[in-house]
Specification:
The complex is a heterodimer of chains A (160) and B (268). By secondary structure, chain A is α+β, with helices and mostly antiparallel strands. Helix content of chain A is 35%, strand content 17%. In chain A, strand 1 and strand 2 form a beta hairpin. In chain A, helix 2 packs across helix 5. The mean pLDDT of chain A is 95. Chain B is an alpha+beta fold. Chain B has a five-stranded antiparallel β-sheet. Chain B starts with a strand and ends in a 6-residue tail after the last helix. The model of chain B has no long low-confidence stretch (mean pLDDT 95). The chains are: A alpha+beta (160), B alpha+beta (268).
């Protein structure tokens, strides 16, 4: 299998790797680069656990080939905390008991981050729509929705 | 997954490479990479094209041209394609819509392919390197097609002429029980002058409900007058059975949902 060079920015840091052609971004992130925050759930584009943000858009890293991300800016949940301080979304998920096994949480947080970046004061329906591609099998969604709404309020208060 | 990806700058070169055995075209990846992840060993090589025109939306003179690589998210947010936004938003969650393409949706097997249902009702034209074909012909022959789709074109429908409905068990995102798109033109007295109705999940690919279309002509869109069309909705259909719904169930509920669509009684 031919190795191909891949260069992108991950959570603000330049990354350059050689990967097998056809390697999913999910595998490149987890196995080559060591960012295990995106989770491999269904590998079918159904569960959203592997969601990352590529050039500002929510994408599924299990269905994205690493070599198509050359020059891209990629954000994962691992890049959200700054200087040991959790991002408001991460804090809200913890405070609202919006995580249980935690497997879906990174994908949920990525979907929520894209929403709040574009819609700082979302309605409940906006949150439901934004998270509609992410499956959680333990919390039952309501705490997750409340966590995103809480994070939005926290952001607004901080901005005021 | 053992795949090798080749990127070409022209459709012509990619088309040539696509003829090799085991080679598939990579658009958004939501179909072909899903298949590969599932263990489809018939895929060993992928080709893609970097030509910018494939990702462009052009609208002029009442016509729309969507490059095959235009994502469904781009369609959903385009102000001049607002009439199509419900059909584009019917596909997957936000991440899928950021990846899935107009061209790819034409190849999506039932229960997927909701946007292709809309394109069928719009009587779109599918453009490839070899020429242009009506979308209905394209859909009928899509399994044997080895040429890259470059764009689809269609006349922009008037706001009140186009209707779309996706029926699913899970809201807001769920796999289709069925989907219906209708393009209706009414005369000044309110009677239907022309009708194109497309159905999703009522066969292995989007299909026209021709008997229902015929039965609508000259009728007003009232409960009594649409009754013959609703009764004829299932003619010629062969609904799929999958974990979402049985063939029997789809056939049973199609008339109900077609009636709601024609009477504008859609509850979102």
């Amino acid at each position: 299998m031919a190795k191909v060079p891949v260069q992108f920015t991950l959570n603000g840091s330049e990354k350059a790797e050689f990967v097998d052609s056809g390697t999913a971004l999910l595998n490149a992130l987890r196995d080559k680069i060591g960012d295990t925050s995106p989770k491999g759930g269904c590998h079918q584009g159904t569960c959203g656990a592997c969601s990352v943000i590529i050039d500002g858009e929510l994408r599924l890293s299990c269905l994205t080939l690493a070599e198509t991300c050359n020059g891209a800016a990629i954000i994962t949940t691992a890049g959200l905390a700054e200087a040991g301080v959790l991002h408001p979304l991460q804090r809200a998920f913890l405070d609202a008991f919006a995580t249980q096994c935690g497997f879906c949480t990174p994908g949920m947080i990525m979907a929520a981050k894209v929403l709040l970046d574009r819609t700082p004061n979302p309605s409940r329906q906006d949150v439901v729509e934004a998270l509609s591609g992410n499956i959680c099998r333990c919390t039952g969604y309501e705490p997750i929705i409340q966590a995103v709404l809480t994070a939005a309020r926290t952001n607004s208060q901080n901005a005021a | 997954m053992t795949l090798a990806l080749q990127t070409f700058s022209t459709v012509k070169d990619a088309n040539a490479a696509l003829q090799a055995s085991g080679t598939r075209y990579l658009g958004g990846g939501t179909l072909v990479l899903r298949a590969a992840n599932e263990g489809d060993v018939s895929v060993s090589r992928l080709v893609r094209v970097s030509e910018p025109s494939l990702s462009q939306i052009g609208i002029s003179g009442g016509k729309a041209r969507l490059g095959a690589s235009v994502t469904l998210a781009a369609v959903a947010r385009h102000p001049e394609l607002a009439v199509l936004a419900p059909a584009a938003r019917a596909v997957g969650g936000p991440a899928i819509r950021n990846m899935a393409t107009v061209g790819g949706n034409l190849f999506a097997p039932a229960p997927y392919g909701d946007f292709a249902v809309a394109l069928l009702a719009l009587d779109a034209t599918v453009i490839g390197e070899g020429g242009e074909v009506p979308v209905e012909t394209f859909l009928a022959e899509r399994e044997s097609s080895r040429a890259i789709v470059t764009a689809v074109t269609f006349a922009l429908p008037p706001e009140k002429g186009f209707r779309f409905l996706k029926v699913s068990r899970v809201k807001p995102k769920g796999i289709s029980v069925l989907s219906i798109a209708a393009m209706l033109q009414q005369a000044s007295d309110g009677t239907v002058a022309s009708a194109r109705i497309a159905l999703g999940c009522m066969a292995d690919r989007p299909m026209r409900a021709r008997a229902a279309e015929q039965a609508l002509l000259g009728r007003k869109l009232t409960a009594d007058e649409i009754a013959p069309a609703v009764a004829a909705a299932g003619e010629g259909t062969s609904p799929i059975t999958d974990p979402i719904a049985s063939s029997w169930y789809r056939a049973e509920v199609l008339p109900v949902h077609l009636g709601r669509l024609l009477l504008n009684q859609i509850k979102v």
